[in-house]
TrEMBL record:
It is found in: Membrane. It catalyses: a very-long-chain acyl-CoA + malonyl-CoA + H(+) = a very-long-chain 3-oxoacyl-CoA + CO2 + CoA. Pfam families: ELO. It is an enzyme of class 2 (transferase). Signal peptide: none annotated. This is Elongation of very long chain fatty acids protein. The chain crosses the membrane at residues 26-45, 65-82, 117-135, 147-165, 171-193, 205-223, 235-254.
Length: 310
């Protein structure tokens, strides 16, 4: 126990020495442990505690809440995109090839530092995507991809805000918030009900956009392995490998959802009757199937084929 406490103390000493002094006193930034505990609690909640709580309960109807939540996420993502762009990337102050971290307290620089913290905070608000799935008893929506994507991001972004708030790595946030504007707009429309289904033909391309995003992040990060830039090489690998991991996870989902041929079974002398069957599935953060948004269905009706009576 004494050894563990000594290691924790040494780690905090390292954080204080090399962490950015501008963000160190901010909420949740002095130590990585609060963020780690929140992330682990999220995983336990959505994979264990939540399903147990809902086991003998009916699914909650959350239509209006989901519409409001997704609308607020659209606004939040749009504001973050604007802040990251207006404090650096769209002002001419930032270079897309190499952008070191500015450690000054210039007003424009501090605007970017604050945007980085709010981007970190937004990763916690996205936990509600999964919580709504659980409350709707859509447990199969809580996939490995979904939980990894949501559970890893707060911890990953914490290190960026702690050590490099601003500079090259904020390109990740610029692309990600842009994608989230489109993504949560889709979820909001899908949550409104079946009458919006005709406007949601582009669900397949949402996953494609996510993959394009990760390719852009990979190229932007890994270019620093071949040019001289005053930016920590460790964060080049950290950001780049995250993009690689998520790209292949999303690619695997895309192949399973959209690339595999559908096999239809034959039936003798069928008589067709219609019964309402909820078959739709959808995952948040661009992982979408057949019109479910944060646990809200689009009213799919499936045809059931029955044998003819004699």
């Amino acid at each position: 126990m004494a050894l563990i406490l000594q290691l924790i103390d040494d780690m905090h000493g390292f954080m204080d020495k090399y962490g950015d002094p501008r963000t160190n006193p901010w909420f949740l930034m002095s130590s990585p442990f609060p963020t780690l505990v929140i992330c682990l609690s999220y995983v336990y909640l959505v994979k264990v505690l939540g399903p147990r709580f809902m086991e003998n309960r009916k699914p909650y109807e959350l239509k209006n809440l989901l519409i409001a939540y997704n609308f607020l996420q659209v606004l939040f993502s749009a504001w973050l995109f604007y802040e990251i762009a207006a404090s650096g990337w769209f002002t001419g102050r930032y270079s897309f090839q190499c952008q070191p971290v500015d450690h000054s307290k210039h007003p424009q620089t501090m605007r970017m530092v604050h945007a980085c913290w709010w981007y970190y905070f937004s990763k916690f608000t996205e936990f509600f995507d999964t919580i709504f799935f659980v409350l709707r008893k859509k447990f199969d929506h809580v996939s490995t991809l979904h939980v990894i994507h949501h559970g890893v991001m707060p911890m990953s972004v914490w290190f960026g805000v702690k050590f490099t708030p601003g500079g090259h790595s904020t390109f990740f946030g610029l692309l990600n918030t842009f994608v989230h504007i489109i993504m949560y707009s889709y979820y909001m429309l899908a949550a409104m009900g079946p009458h919006m289904r005709k406007y949601l033909w582009w669900k397949k391309y949402l996953t494609s956009l996510q993959m394009v995003q990760f390719i852009g992040i990979m190229v932007h990060a890994f270019q620093l392995l071949f040019i001289e830039c005053d930016y920590p090489r460790a964060f080049v690998w950290w950001i780049g490998m995250h993009a690689v991991m998520f790209f292949f996870l999303f690619k695997d989902f895309y192949n399973q959802s959209y690339s595999k041929p559908k096999v239809r079974a034959s039936s003798p002398a069928p008589v067709q009757t219609e019964v309402p069957v909820l078959k739709a599935k959808e995952y948040s953060n661009g992982v979408v199937r057949n019109g479910y948004s944060n646990g809200v269905g689009n009213g799919v009706r499936a045809r059931t084929v029955l044998p003819a009576s004699n």
